[in-house]
Amino acid sequence: MECTGGYPQDGVPPLEGVAGGGTGYGWNDDGLHGSNLFGGSVDPTKVPSRDLLHVWCMPSTANVGPQETPRSLENISLLAARNERESIQIAVRPKVSWGRPGIAGIIQVHCTDLCSASGERLVIGQAVTLRHVVPLLGVPDALVPLDLPVSQITLLPGETTAIWVSVDVPAEQSPGQYGGEFIITAMKEKAEISTQLLAKDEKHQIFRELRNCIDVVESIEHKPTENVGERLKSISTALKRVILYPTFSEISSDNDGPMDMIEDDALTTLSVHLRLSVTVWDFVLPRTPSLPAVFGICETVIEDRFGVKHGSVEWYEALDQHFKWLLQYRISPFFCRWGDSMRVFAYTCPWPADHPKAEEYYSDTRLAAYAVPYAPVISGSDAAKDALRKEVDILKTKAHWKKAYFYLWDEPLNLNNYNSVRNMSSEIRTYAPDARVLTSYYCGPSDAPLAPTPFEAFVKVPSFLRPHTQIYCTSEWVLGNREDLAKDIIAELQPDIGEEWWTYVCMGPYDPQPNWHLGMRGTQHRAVMWRVWKEGGTGFLYWGANCYEKAMIPSAEIRFRRGLPPGDGVLFYPGEVYSSLKEPVASVRLERILSSLQDIEYLKLYASIYGRDEGLVLLEKTGVYLGPERYTLEHMPIDVMRGEIFHTCRSRT
Amino acid sequence: MECTGGYPQDGVPPLEGVAGGGTGYGWNDDGLHGSNLFGGSVDPTKVPSRDLLHVWCMPSTANVGPQETPRSLENISLLAARNERESIQIAVRPKVSWGRPGIAGIIQVHCTDLCSASGERLVIGQAVTLRHVVPLLGVPDALVPLDLPVSQITLLPGETTAIWVSVDVPAEQSPGQYGGEFIITAMKEKAEISTQLLAKDEKHQIFRELRNCIDVVESIEHKPTENVGERLKSISTALKRVILYPTFSEISSDNDGPMDMIEDDALTTLSVHLRLSVTVWDFVLPRTPSLPAVFGICETVIEDRFGVKHGSVEWYEALDQHFKWLLQYRISPFFCRWGDSMRVFAYTCPWPADHPKAEEYYSDTRLAAYAVPYAPVISGSDAAKDALRKEVDILKTKAHWKKAYFYLWDEPLNLNNYNSVRNMSSEIRTYAPDARVLTSYYCGPSDAPLAPTPFEAFVKVPSFLRPHTQIYCTSEWVLGNREDLAKDIIAELQPDIGEEWWTYVCMGPYDPQPNWHLGMRGTQHRAVMWRVWKEGGTGFLYWGANCYEKAMIPSAEIRFRRGLPPGDGVLFYPGEVYSSLKEPVASVRLERILSSLQDIEYLKLYASIYGRDEGLVLLEKTGVYLGPERYTLEHMPIDVMRGEIFHTCRSRT
């Protein structure tokens, strides 16, 4: 056959051109030319994992979604006080696919304990935890716990996956340097998983062979004289054949029993190693948060989703679990249920004051404030009044009574609403003159203006409600970007008779101001508490942490409520949606709330030594927070501020 | 213990309020209250899958991403001509989670053959295929083949997954109604997968038991007199114990061999059933596309990514595979490599004209046009000239020579570029005066203006290039939204001497005009060819279908080239990135290109009966396409137009 027709040599189209792919080809050559990878399929047990994976770190304020682009890998250094949680993210993205169809591959993440030179430890699984960052509405938010110390994660082609690493330093931990490492390894999928369906035929074959052997054995038992040697031979041959099936191959080859983790030196030399070092300093964050942050947990949502009947044993268990879980976040929970006209029934402890659990709840030093149930909510019946009186009579004798407050109405709007608050407060204060009533509001009564303009009327609310409210809790939304207006609010209060200014966020304020909606920047989430500290509030209220849309099954899809910005009223998720876990799954927003409540302790420490004004200077000069629309968009200033507090306050705490 | 403290009855906080969750609770109650689901964990073998899943249909022009919200389920009706592919999407979203940690659950999708009343079939796996829609840069784009007729898909919490269903009607299929169904079932995870790691211990136990039996058998062989009965008994007991291990439980219980599919009636009654009916009409789409659509395949990309050496056996195989694969899309492929100054080396067949493969390629009736390699690309050496002459001498005698064209330069910009085209064309036309040269351009020579304004100069290019170009291939970008300017271009051409107007898209035109970039609407992708048909072009060129960024491993992550809009130059992906598949994976954009090339056949049929003007009226009155910035955003008008053509043209084809 003559085959040299149109081409000058060898019948092959000529090579031509500088690159050959048109625009921009090869601008970002990643250098993956290793002969181990070239051309064929990829065996992760033979090539360094760094050739298969991008691994890099991101701060806790970054929203690391599937499109996050790789950065260079640098070791991690964290600063943490004692009784503080500090978090960071590890991002991983496949460079190639090596796994079964539909995925890029599976990686194993192994984290060691963090050890100090003197042998002290931050133990993986206790002080160090890993969670998988999972998107909600496309935004990375839910933190699903990973197995420890070793877990496996599935990577998808072209998608970045993030792992949330938290270090919880115990209050009694010795200050010093702690170091450990993450070992990230691209895995060859376990034979069991990838070949199991294929191995099904083999299983049937083994089964048939064994049944056949049983028949032969039984035949020998029945006719013990005929050809016994031959029949024994056939059994022995069959059994030897069976144990050579691929199913047993790894057993016969390594013979060292079940082993799921890679501990093989040869393999860990292929892994990506990432050093994590933590500087633990002498400061111990106070066990009782300096700023009471009271957050609602909707008990109706729990009753519906988990199918627990109000007042049943399971109901108490479910509430107890939610209380204890949220308490970890320097938050003082209250359970809540809304009534007509935003009347709210709020209580921190589901048990009555004379129950041992009540004492356990109210005296917990991590609880900064607690809501006392206002029992006569259904009517002003004598029984209800008696019950309230009895509850108050017990509590007002306790040392923890100073943490108590009554939350009776959410955002009164008119004279009728405001008068309800006054009447309920009067009753309460008959039983305990020093009781504190909290009222959340953003305006005065619309049908009896307290002043010519809405803002002036809003500022006049304390003079109208006094002495029926002690905690004046106003929406940050009212201030807009005028933080100076906070002074007008504070000026109206009488701290000498125990009046306080607290704030809250909910639907408002909107972007770019600080709030906790899904899709906002990480620093915007964290800025909510910077704002509180700068404006001078002494407490904070959030309406709901679990207010998803109604569902009647624990694992039902999480949906946000119509009319609310995504994430508003939702700071954690039911674990059942993501796993067989029975406990809630935190959002990254809840973690950032914890971080910002910890920031307040840092700022308070600094202010206790250098004065509050110097604290404000520090907040400004580091660029962390200058105002409701002027705060850092990047993480670095936060570390600078914390570092400055560490350097100037250590050995003085 | 006295426990009735603060509460009026039973010591339980009172129930209060109309709803109890604040804003909007329960607005979208999905009615999942079934006692099978209430409270506990979910067993998909006991509850109807519709309680666990949303299933609904979406048209092929919808970009169905993870956030797509559920719609109601309706059965599918499609219209398809013979030799046509029609596609639709099935979207699935979990209502609850029932699977292992990290996922919502696994579903099984089973599709039956589509049958007519007279027993004719569109066979699953051949005429009916299913692919999984996978996102790229967060946009649903890659279509990864699913197993047929039954496949399993993993669903993630809170994410919608789409399945792309295509029906390819063979040219010889009998017209009529065909019906079949999709059976979608929430699966309990296979014991093999979920319990395999646990079963590892068991495997070791079985292995030990068998080895022990072998020892006993051998001991009998050695000492055939001592306690044989006892020893045989022990073997028989051990083997009977082994076959009762859970590993073999399903074999011993059902005993009917390997079975992966759910065929159990009890289970399919739980499934979601979705009817698919297809009306096949008598029209047969012409095997040779009416509009030549020539698309580049970059051979450098293939060489680099698949590690095939230019000219090697593997290289020819790889090019052959790409050619055949793309030919399925009513596209006429050409291989290409760029040189200096956008000189381009383009050829449809990698073998020389005297090779049997060349005849196979060029005479394929699905190929509407082919690029003949212009060999003297490196220099004007005599050898190269001879080779070119030999190639042309062979081809010009063939019937398929009318499909031949020479593509020499991509977008000449100055006199030097244009003169190169003229010189090469002169040489070619010495050997074959009827050779057709294609030149792609968007401007005249910048250093020798042909007219006072850039657009006028652009329009004058034919008078400047004549007779060195026959196919004047201009960028749609030049027209902007002024489709009337097409008349000015056409007016300059001389169809009597074989001059044609073709167009192309690449970086431009931009949104909202039709193009194939990732992230554009589905109808925007499909509108590219509607535009061609309306403006009157007789052919189309696209620069590259596989022009991803350089990589040296088949399964390397797909990256788009810097400086290009995402998706520009990339219409399919290497199968290795998504699976062990060795063939390319189509994008949804490529499927929409096919659909729009099929639309052209429908319009051409209609115009052949009612005239081109009536065809334009139909395009307008259905709202499908009115201009470069006025085309339908919804799918419905497309079906209306196709239906109208079906009703008015059937039995007239």
UniProtKB/TrEMBL annotation, chains A, B:
What is the official name of this protein in its record?
A: Glycoside hydrolase 123 catalytic domain-containing protein
Q: Where is this region: Disordered?
A: 1-20
InterPro entries tied to this protein = GH123_cat (IPR025150)
Q: Which domain of life is it from?
A: Eukaryota
Native organism: Protea cynaroides
Domain named Glycoside hydrolase 123 catalytic: which ranges? 384-605
